[in-house]
From TrEMBL, chain A:
It comes from the Bacteria. Residues 40-66 are annotated as: Disordered. This is Uncharacterized protein.
TrEMBL record, chain B:
The lineage of its organism: Bacteria, Pseudomonadati, Pseudomonadota, Alphaproteobacteria, Sphingomonadales. It holds the Pfam family HTH_3. It comes from Novosphingobium jiangmenense. It comes from the Bacteria. This is Helix-turn-helix transcriptional regulator. Residues 102-158 form the HTH cro/C1-type domain. InterPro entries: Cro/C1-type_HTH, Lambda_DNA-bd_dom_sf.
Length: 117, 173
């Protein structure tokens, strides 16, 4: 499956997953969803310690957490995208570079039904 | 050498392209990635990420794919800055699939001929001959394998066919 298709599948499955209630749970949900989809559809073995592009999408690790993070929202920068996790379990993914800059591609509410402000 | 050193080397680029947007993203922890993003009005974007001891990782183009790794790696700030300047000037998208020569690969890994030759137990001129023969396509596979391993990597050889089949070919261990 092409990367763009896998990315859309990831967004769809993440959006439809049961909402969670904390930053940690939200980050884990994103990780597990992406790893499962890439395992099933990318054809590329998981190499979480790699750095160079191998054709597979990887969830953000702690070394991508940004200094603007706080107890209310944890912000991570991935390739061309910003991923924010809210303390209520909400998740937002937005394009932060290049064509489509500023576009929010996923805005998942937390368990309390609220999205990030 | 810090990320700030790298940023200072890009000052001429900022002056040459005042319309470009330069944004630095700071890590939450000292051991995290520093990220520089350069956006041009035509949609072309360059991202540079850095952390010790990995070096500088670069990806460039109009579309930067979610969660993918960097395309090119540079060990030092001057080489990374020069590459960024070239990418901005030419609007050339990077690709991890672009082949490089063995000599280029050694430089991308930040290694000098002398130290790699010593690791292999050969002379510097001997290594130079290997790099030349590799460029000409006459190097032996086991020689190439040892050289790649001396750079900390692993040699992978694959075969592709017109019907779309692609398979890695087993060579040695």
């Amino acid at each position: 499956m092409e990367r763009s298709e896998r990315f859309q599948l990831f967004l769809d499955e993440l959006m439809s997953a049961t909402a969670v209630a904390s930053i940690e749970e939200a980050k884990l949900l994103l990780e597990q969803t992406l790893v499962r989809i890439e395992n099933e559809h990318s054809g590329v073995p998981d190499n979480p310690d790699g750095w160079q592009n191998d054709g597979r999408m990887y969830p953000p690790k702690e070394d991508r957490r940004r200094s603007i993070s706080n107890e209310v929202v944890a912000v991570y920068d991935s390739r061309g995208h910003r991923i924010s996790f809210g303390h209520n379990g909400s998740i937002r993914i937005e394009i932060r570079r290049g064509l489509g800059k500023g576009t929010i591609v996923l805005d998942k509410p937390g368990q309390d039904g609220k999205t990030l402000p | 050498m810090t990320f700030q050193t790298f940023l200072s080397l890009l000052e001429p680029l900022r002056a040459e392209y005042p319309e470009a947007e330069f944004e630095v993203s700071e890590p939450a922890a000292p051991s995290g990635f520093w990220i520089l993003s350069i956006d041009l009005p035509d949609g072309f974007s360059v991202e540079v990420e850095w952390k010790r001891p990995l070096g500088f990782g670069i990806a460039a183009g109009p579309n930067l794919a979610f969660g993918e790794g960097v395309h090119e790696v540079f060990a030092n700030a001057p080489d990374a800055a020069a590459r960024v300047a070239h990418l901005v000037a030419t609007r050339t998208p990077t690709s991890a699939d672009v082949p490089v020569s063995i000599a280029q690969l050694r430089k991308l890994r930040g290694r000098m001929q002398k130290e790699v030759a010593e690791a292999l137990g050969i002379s510097k001129s001997g290594l130079s001959q290997i790099e030349t023969s590799a460029a000409m396509g006459t190097v032996q596979i086991d020689t190439l394998q040892k050289l790649i391993e001396s750079l900390g990597g692993r040699l992978k050889i694959s075969a592709t066919f017109p019907d779309g089949m692609e398979r890695r070919v087993s060579v040695g261990h």
